């Protein structure tokens, strides 16, 4: 949920795939190098072992959510897609829950996300609440786009959903929408208060 550069108010294109396996390792390695950190420095800052970080970067281990969270904070990785890992699992009958107000917060310039049920890292759906801080499409550097599909329910307030191939869609409390998240999209609040939504992303 982030970015744009309009052509008559419409944003431009940027592709951001949800990391999984090799992609997750590459994202972490590239971000570490961009910040000029060695393996030792990044591992120490994230409070994990150097060998663990090396294995993550080379897709030789599947990190826990807690380790991913530390690396995300250390490397300033703020996209919710970081938590979508579609690796196959033989485990069945899994369950996770989040108490009210106790989700994992990730804030960007345009949204304030609360990630839900974050203990399960190998899952295909990513549920989260979001507060839409943006008030104009000019606040986005480019279209938001990523793999998969998305469902959104407006919980409170009013907003406009901008999408790459459709006219702007005004929405209010109780309204829902389902769309291809590979299509450029972004939301801006139009009510006096920031709009709050429930998003469910499917990788």
**Would you count the extended β strands for me?**
9
Indicate the proportion of strand residues.
25-35%
Distance between the termini: 14 Å
- Oligomer designation: single chain
Write down the overall mean pLDDT. Answer: 82
The rounded Rg comes to 17 Å
Which blocks of ≥5 consecutive residues have pLDDT under 50?
1-19, 84-89
- Number of discrete helical segments: 4
Helix and strand content put the structural class at alpha+beta
Shape: globular
Biggest sheet overview: 6 strands, antiparallel
Following the backbone from N to C, one meets helices and strands in this order, namely: HHHHEEEEEEEEE
Helix content: 10-25%
- Provide the spatial order of strands within the biggest beta sheet: 1-2-3-9-4-7
Keywords: DNA-binding, Plasmid
Region (Disordered): 1-26
Pfam families: Cupin_2, HTH_3
Organism: Phaeobacter inhibens
Could you describe the 3D structure shown?
Keywords: DNA-binding, Plasmid. Residues 1-26 are annotated as: Disordered. Residues 28-82 form the HTH cro/C1-type domain. The protein starts with 21 loop residues before the first helix and ends with a strand. The protein is 20% helix and 28% strand. The longest helix is centred in the first third of the chain and has 13 residues, at 22-34. A six-stranded antiparallel beta sheet has the order 1-2-3-9-4-7, with no helix packed on it. The chain has helices at 22-34, 39-46, 50-57, 65-75; strands at residues 104-107, 111-115, 125-132, 149-156, 158-163, 166-172, 176-180, 185-189, 195-202. Helix 2 (39-46) crosses helix 3 (50-57) and helix 2 packs across helix 4 (65-75). It is α+β, with helices and mostly antiparallel strands and 203 residues long.
